[in-house]
Amino acid sequence: MSAWRDKEEFKARVLAWVDKLGVKTRALALRPMRNKWASCSTAGNLNFNTELLALDRRIGDYVIVHELLHFSVPNHGKLWKSLMRAHLGDYESMEERLEKITQNKSPQRTAGRRRVDTRSATVDI
Prior knowledge:
The chain is mainly α. Helix content is 46%, strand content 10%.
């Protein structure tokens, strides 16, 4: 496992993906988040959980691409899944790893979490 050195390295990776995907963003922040790994808004704001810094970079890429694709695809349907696969290959394995990490967190942190509903337009993970 190769964790991130610091916030700056993570932010640089986000910006590299922003360029690669041609996404327009307004703000980028890393901050503690109780029930999410990341979130994005229609205004172009991106928020990432600081806990991601301790995780494998491949999981970070999964979360980054997941959020950035929501700027063009607001749901988790076939197009979104196809784009995830095109950019990350077997993204489902990273999704499973992140789910296991989430389940292993303390009950207080996971008590309010819900699984991502792939049929809705929910963008929080």
